[in-house]
Each structure stands twice: as C-alpha cells, then as structure tokens.
Amino acid sequence: MKTRKGMAWIGAVLLAGFLAPSFTMSAADNPDSEQVSNLLSGARTMALQLKDDAQTMASFTGMNVKWETHRDAISQIKEHVNALARQVDKLKSARDSAAPWQKTVIDRTDPYLAEMNGYTEAVIENLNKRPERLRTPEYQDYLEANADYAGDLAGMIADFVDYGRTKDRLQRLTDKLEVPAR
Fold first, then answer.
1. Fewest C-beta in 10 Å: which of 11, 47, 105, 168?
2. Residue-number span of the structural domain to which 121 is assigned
C-alpha cells in the first residue's frame, strides 16, 4: 500500500517536472506589453486620486459641510471616474497585445467602474433633489460605498502594476545572473 502511494507521488512529481517548462514557455510567448504597462501606470495614478477624493468626500459625513462643498467634490469624483473610464477604454483597445496578467487587470476594472458610476450618480441625484438632506443614512451609504469601491479599485490596479514591475525586475536579474531556465 505504501509503495503504491509512493509511486503515485513520484509520478505526480515527474509529471509536474515535465509540465513546468511548458508553463514557463507560454509566459515567455506572451511578453508584457510596454504600451499596456504604461497605460496601467497612468490608470494607477488616476485610481489613487479617485480613491483620495472619494475618501475625503466620505469624511464629510462627520463634519458640518455645506451642500455646495458636496456638489463640488462629487463633480470632481465624476470627472475622475470618467477620466479613468477613458483610460480603461485605451487599455481595452490595446488588450490584444497584452500579456495574460495585463488582460486580467483590464477585465477586472469594469465592474468597479460600473459600481462607482452608479453610486456617483446616486449621490448627484440625491444632491439635486434634496441638498439639505446630507445626513441621511442612505446618502452616507452612497458616500461610503463610493470610497470603498474607489479604494478597492486603486488597490487592485496598484497591486497589478507592482506585480508587473516585480516581474520585470526578476527577469532583468535572471538575465544578469544568467540563471538557466528550467
């Protein structure tokens, strides 16, 4: 019985050894797109600004801030959401030349932007209809949700950009040290 399990384990290790080079080969076949990396870096900067603005606006709920300040802040957030959406459109146009990890981040941005757009529109609608009701739980939930989605989106994009930079650095070190491929 133990021999059978041992043989199965050895077989699995050998199979993994044979398959590992094919995984590394496929990654080399799809190199990172410099254009997409640059667009992602820009999207990262935009998303971080959007996160800061949304968190600032969410903090208004604990302050005595005039509705005009809310209006100005949400207008700026709306502009940032639209600018980021235009950046994502550029990323989608370049998707065919993207590496698999780059395609993943491009695909994952849409749900965040859609949610942020919905909450941003809800805040704008609330301000237009009832500017005097800035302390309602519903309005505060919109602000908090916007800040949460902006933070999650910025974190996700930043993590992928960091991944790409780390991957590039590792490849440069591998080349410099002449580490043999598996």
1. 11
2. 34-177
- For residues 43 and 91, the answer to whether their CB atoms sit within 8 Å is yes
pLDDT of residue 11: 45
Q: Same structural domain for residues 8 and 50?
A: no
Q: Find all residues with CB under 8 Å of 92, minimum gap 6, and list them.
A: 106
Residue 13 shares a structural domain with residue 47 = no
The total number of structural domains in the chain stands at 2
- The pLDDT tens digits for 73-103 are 999 999 999 999 999 999 999 999 999 999 9
Kindly state the tokens that stand for 11. Answer: 């077989």
CA distances from 76 to 102, 113, 114, 118 (A): 28, 15, 17, 15
Total residue length of the chain: 182
pLDDT digits (tens, 9 = 90+) for 101-127: 999 999 999 999 999 999 999 999 999
Are 69 and 57 found together in one domain? yes
Which 3 state secondary structure label does DSSP give 27?
helix
| pLDDT tens for each residue of 161-172 | 999 999 999 999
